[in-house]
Specification:
By secondary structure, the chain is mainly α. It is about 65% helix and about 0% strand.
Length: about 250
């Protein structure tokens, strides 16, 4: 338990260093997404409504209090932490919830290193794990010239980058999937991966579609392929239908 607390403390201090102005000891402005997620969390805490309509839930409650698919798991957790601690939900999201998920991902990477590199001491495994958290993308010159690279924050897609920390929970699910694949537990790996769209609906088309096609090519009987293909089409249609708010 003490090691879990220590790892969390390391990530907490790391986050704190980027949000505290060391000259005046005041808080700096949060990244824009932190404010958005803070308002989503407040909507959940105050109105218990899963949507992205911000203050509309208060001023136009009859028209806008509808459910809208999004990634609410970490937002509900943040709302709970904010409610218990009585702290601003933006601060709890950045300084408490994000370090929790970063710590979870850290232990996943650490377990892989310990499993694969048994000759390394525990200290070296810890140091290597921390270094791997900062691994970012490769530089490819022709991609750098594309208009897709409009946001400089996208140039640091490591889990420790400010733009991609919000995906730390998703990274942990993907990591669990790869660990199970590594252990040759393919069925359990698919179940874990299928849990991700439950937590964040935006992954539904790619994950459900990918797993359906994977299983299609693993089934030899034509009837199984046909049923799986229809499942893909119906599931995809349901996703796009449910992704739109439905007003009364």
């Amino acid at each position: 338990m003490k090691y879990i607390s220590l790892v969390f403390l390391v990530f907490f201090v790391f986050q704190l260093l980027f949000i505290i102005d060391l000259t005046s000891f005041n808080f700096k402005n949060f990244y824009l997404d932190i404010y958005s997620n803070s308002m989503f969390s407040d909507n959940l805490r105050v109105y218990s409504v899963e949507n992205c309509f911000f203050e509309h839930n208060k001023y136009f409650s009859g028209a806008y209090n509808v459910n809208y698919p999004y990634h609410y798991f970490e937002l509900w957790l943040n709302a709970l932490i904010s409610n218990i601690s009585k702290l601003y939900s933006g601060s709890t999201y950045y300084l408490i919830m994000t370090p929790i998920f970063l710590s979870t991902y850290f232990y996943g990477v650490f377990s892989i290193i310990r499993f694969k590199l048994k000759k390394l001491t525990q200290l070296y495994c810890v140091l290597l794990t921390f270094l791997l958290l900062f691994v970012t993308s490769f530089f490819i010159p022709f991609i750098d010239r594309l208009e897709l690279e409009f946001n400089p924050l996208f140039n640091d897609p490591s889990i420790m980058g400010v733009e991609f920390q919000k995906l730390s929970f998703s990274y942990s699910i993907f990591l669990s999937f790869f660990i199970l694949i590594m252990l040759k537990k393919k069925v359990y790996a698919q179940i874990v991966l299928l849990s991700l769209p439950v937590f964040s609906i935006v992954y539904a088309p790619s994950i459900i579609g990918g797993l359906v096609f994977y299983n299609i090519f693993n089934y030899k009987k034509k009837i199984h392929r046909t049923l799986l293909l229809y499942t893909l089409l119906i599931g995809g249609g349901d996703f796009y239908f449910l992704s739109q708010p439905h007003f009364d």
